Amino acid sequence: DTGVSQNPRHKITKRGQNVTFRCDPISEHNRLYWYRQTLGQGPEFLTYFQNEAQLEKSRLLSDRFSAERPKGSFSTLEIQRTEQGDSAMYLCAIPGGGAGSLSYEQYFGPGTRLTVT
Amino acid sequence: AQKVTQAQTEISVVEKEDVTLDCVYETRDTTYYLFWYKQPPSGELVFLIRRNSFDEQNEISGRYSWNFQKSTSSFNFTITASQVVDSAVYFCALSADAGNMLTFGGGTRLMVKP
What we know:
Chain A is mainly β. In chain A, 0% of the residues lie in helices and 50% in strands. Chain B contains no helices and twelve strands. Classes of the chains: A mainly beta, B mainly beta.
């Protein structure tokens, strides 16, 4: 158990619909990361939060994507007007170590698999 | 920009064989961190090891060993006496600093046959 839960685990949606994913770390962590993994590829960084603040966004994160971490605990990732190219596994990660520490390695949740039909 | 290359997309071995997974990286940072993750068929990414750029000592953990060579920008992973349970996709990753994003390679799918 990595201490990160993600919901839903699977989501099938039709093109053009909006979807929202949620990431819940079990304990408090200053940082929270989102990655996307398409079939047969390694995970790609999307964005990360330091507490409530979104500090960095990848160019992969088009304006259809928005992420929030309103209370510095859980985070949501929303995709508007989904496209077939959005089909992927969306992974949430937290740093190792205690709540206030910045560990080098990251621990990943089980992911949300999105299929856009 | 950082880049991680895992040239071997798929490797198949028979149980008890030794296997080495290659990882080559590119970075302009003088201090950086290298990682290996395992992704079994269940799908969850499992952290295996971190290596700092200023520590070139090789590491062994049971049947796993890691060979970091700064001169060739490589961080290879060897599994000795492979087992069927080692079947998974293995990812090498790179980070510039603590708390920074990870840059992953494309992964190597290892299949260990009985």
